Amino acid sequence: MQAARMAPSVGRQLQRLGVGSSRPRALVWQPPPGPARRPYASGAAQAVLEKSNSSSPEASTREKQAKAESKSFAVGMFKGQLTTDQVFPYPSVLNEEQTQFLKELVGPVSRFFEEVNDPAKNDMMEKVEETTMQGLKELGAFGLQVPSELGGVGLCNTQYARLVEIVGTHDLGVGITLGAHQSIGFKGILLFGTKAQKEKYLPKLASGETIAAFCLTEPSSGSDAASIRTSAVPSPCGKYYTLNGSKIWISNGGLADVFTVFAKTPVTDAATGAVKEKITAFVVERSFGGVTHGPPEKKMGIKASNTAEVYFDGVRVPSENVLGKVGGGFKVAMHILNNGRFGMAAALAGTMRGIIAKAVDHAANRTQFGEKIHNFGLIQEKLARMAMLQYVTESMAYMVSANMDQGATDFQIEAAISKIFGSEAAWKVTDECIQIMGGMGFMKEPGVERVLRDLRIFRIFEGTNDILRLFVALQGCMDKGKELSGLGSALKNPFGNAGLLLGEAGKQLRRRAGLGSGLSLSAVIHQELNRSGELTVKALEQFAAVVEAKLIKHKKGIVNEQFVLQRLADSAIDLYAMVVVLSRASRSLSEGHPTAQHEKMLCDSWCIEAAARVRENMAALQSDPQQQELFRNFKSISTALVERGGMVTSNPLGF
Ligand SMILES: Cc1cc2nc3c(=O)[nH]c(=O)nc-3n(C[C@H](O)[C@H](O)[C@H](O)COP(=O)(O)OP(=O)(O)OC[C@H]3O[C@@H](n4cnc5c(N)ncnc54)[C@H](O)[C@@H]3O)c2cc1C
After folding, report:
1. What is the pLDDT of residues 425-483, one digit of tens each?
2. CB 89 within 8 A of CB 526
3. Which one of 214, 239, 541, 573 has the fewest CB atoms closer than 10 angstroms to its CB?
4. CA of 466 to the centre of ligand 1 (A)
5. What residue ranges line ligand 1, CB within 6 angstroms?
6. Helix ranges, 406-438 (H)
7. d(CA 420, CA 468)
8. For the whole prediction, is pTM greater than 0.85?
9. Of all atoms in ligand 1, which is nearest to the CA of residue 467?
């Protein structure tokens, strides 16, 4: 059965893509919130209605399998399941004390950005003004998630999200300076550091006395992070490693005193004795000697944030500075990146909030053709879409942060989706803001052009959105592939696996007959959102049917079907977006929140359009012969362009 070999093969491709199949652990564990259950959600309702006789042995086997199954909604949707545990009800994870503490921080941090920081000046100077750096240190902004006993503010992920949202509203250049320091720069020490490493480094990093950077990218190694060449050779005495190599485009590279550096080290396989080069993570101090950096890069945006090459020339790194396990550096890198993605979505939700306020201000005050321009349908559609994109991003950011705070271990597809969605939504929203502002939007003074420049990098770094789309699709396919592998074994032993086979065959037959899977979200969403719930379920069924068909068709070859994978990822993103807004709007309706009816409109509008996109994409992928022609054409056109070195066609005038 080829299906049985599919999952590991997809896994290897994921590793190669530099996204890994790691299951990040939560930074701060919060007990699941007892009183936060909402009346519209009947406990941890699994909305899979396919009921079976619970006393049968097959049923109990299935129950055991279900228990071992992921709680991730995203993992479930690839299998045609509605796994609602992590998404319904919309989580409220902060206890009273945490909420109060956060409220006390929000005011001063907002005021600081409104009154002290000057984003235009930072952008012009191409560095963060010293008063801002100093003020942020005094506010504790350099150690937001460092435990208080080590000198930090000790915030959980949700509290952190709220504060980075404020930073994102005001200054993305400052945001990257802070993020490169704590979201990636020293996050490895927080997640993987020994007690000694934490005690040695975190207090000074938390106060901002020392600055951190994350050093993975090299001239020949970007998305393909596993191909780095920087090397760390252990000394014969075993007391230190000698580090040699260079890293490029390192945020804070010219400012940092402490670096998380990824390098290849020789690792001996205990079983075979063979020596293999594997990546190991190190905590490297500038003071070790041999660490230098290049000049600040001249960039399109986030100019205030320092970006530089960093060189390691015969740096002696003590063996106790290995971060995590020797040879386990790739996992360390992927955990760090997975762990920080919700922060990017939160910051960009803040950016959009600020930008939308500017667009609205202009639309409400600008008169053309004798009318305020907000009265024109074209402007109204833009503003409404901008609001929807912000609402989805914000809902995703706080859903993922809450899941992490609740101790969820399986959230990496969701985290990747939040990064992709947030960075693309913020770009679209800011671009439309400029359009609404007309010529004024193009001027420097309102500061929107700066935000657009700053935003461009978010679709590129910490995993390009293209690579993350492949990750979303392949990770989902891998989990579905495992199920299909189970199906393969079941076919070999049909009597022992009757339950599995009957269940699968039933599902497939129902799908083919267009009968639907019997899934429903009605038990977990507010009844006013039932229509959107039905659209979501239908879209999920269409999506899962195509995932299954493509896996059966391509088997492990799915890893090379990027045209298909991209479309699967796009629909996965739409589906997750539908579910998070359904969840959040349900909570607001159920609680009688003053904006509940507005949220219902945002949610319904999102679901109507997203469901249509999924329907069209999946129908085309499933049965449209022209789609195959399109893919062949894309490949041929691109090949011809590459062969020709640019456009193949000449000017219509012929010269
Ligand atoms: C301002 C800035 C700050 C940065 N900060 C840091 C930092 O602090 N630390 C750090 O380590 N790095 C940092 N980076 C590096 C950043 O993470 C990389 O630029 C990013 O990972 C992409 O790598 P690359 O630029 O080499 O692009 P490449 O990997 O060469 O990709 C080029 C294009 O090809 C696509 N592509 C690549 N492989 C595939 C594939 N298999 N299938 C389909 N498409 C593919 C990509 O999506 C992309 O569109 C920073 C970069 C910038 C610009």
Report:
1. 999 999 999 999 999 999 999 999 999 999 999 999 999 999 999 999 999 998 787 76
2. no
3. 239
4. 10
5. 180, 214-217, 222-223, 249-251, 299, 302, 307, 457, 460-462, 464, 466-467
6. 412-437
7. 7
8. yes
9. 47
What confidence score (pLDDT) does residue 481 get?
74
Pocket test for ligand 1, best of 284, 467, 635 (most atoms within 8 A of CB): 467
As a residue count, the chain comes to 655
Query: Does the annotation count 462 as an active-site position?
Result: yes
Which of 419, 460, 560 should be mutated for ligand 1, with most atoms under 8 A from CB?
Answer: 460
Which residue minimizes the CA distance to atom 40 of ligand 1? 467
For 490, the enclosing helix (H) or strand (E) is helix 465-492
Q: What phi and psi values does residue 620 have, to the nearest 5 degrees? A: -65, -40
DSSP lists the bridge partners of residue 277 as 266
User: 271 burial class (0-12, 13-18, 19+ CB within 10 angstroms)?
Assistant: exposed
Please give the number of the atom of ligand 1 that sits closest to the Cα of 184: 8
Atom of ligand 1 nearest to the CA of 297: 1
CB under 8 Å to 126, separation ≥6 — which residues? 296, 303, 304
Judge contact between 213 and 250, C-beta under 8 A.
yes
pLDDT digits (tens, 9 = 90+) for 41-74: 322 222 222 222 333 444 455 445 544 679 999 9
DSSP codes, 587-622: HHHHHT-TTHHHHHHHHHHHHHHHHHHHHHHHHHHH
Cα 90 to averaged position of ligand 1 atoms, centre (Å): 33
Quote the CA–CA distance of 476 and 466 in Å, as a whole number. 16
